[in-house]
Design goal:
single chain, alpha+beta, five-stranded antiparallel β-sheet, two-stranded antiparallel sheet, 5 helices, 7 strands, globular
Length: about 170
């Protein structure tokens, strides 16, 4: 299989939040240290508005690998949407905490680089007073779920509703 930089597949053609596919390919597949520009997620995308809607509909936002469609982060967890948003704005990139990482699909390398298990460059772990903080390029996590992932999520949502004893 031919490698495309650090991944064996190209970036998806139709990224979420109107993310730029060319920029995503450069950041995800041909980069180890660079990043989208500070505040890109706020100024050049529809992320802010659409993320709030997704949060209000589902209670959290799932962020998918822009190459593979695998889930990488689910936020907010252990905090409010406003806290997630405020921290992200303050640092200039979407910022995730340990409980928001889908560890079966994400690795943090010894130099702090965060990558997907399939080789997608995501960003870096920049710990602060609250512990590990993963500053992640939105273009790296703007993928769409695979068909199998969508089916699994639909099934899980159905099961939760079917067996929800609170209603």
């Amino acid at each position: 299989m031919e490698m495309l930089g650090t991944s064996d597949r190209p970036v998806q053609e139709d990224l979420r939040w109107s993310c730029d596919v060319g920029l995503a390919d450069k950041i995800c597949n041909f980069n180890r240290h660079g990043a989208e520009r500070l505040g890109y997620f706020m100024m050049a995308t529809s992320f802010g508005k659409e993320a709030r809607v997704e949060y209000e509909d589902r209670g959290e936002i799932t962020f998918y690998d822009s190459n593979t469609g695998k889930p990488l982060f689910v936020a907010p967890r252990g905090r409010s949407f406003d806290s997630f948003w405020s921290e992200s704005v303050s640092h200039g990139w979407p910022s995730f905490r340990d409980e928001e990482v889908v560890w079966e699909n994400v690795r943090c390398l010894p130099d702090g680089e965060a990558v997907s298990v399939d080789g997608t460059h995501l960003g870096h772990n920049l710990p602060d007073f609250g512990g590990s903080r993963y500053c992640i390029n939105l273009v790296s996590v703007a993928g769409r779920p695979t068909q199998q992932q969508q089916e699994d999520e639909t099934s899980a949502t159905y099961s939760e509703k079917k067996y929800d004893t609170k209603t």
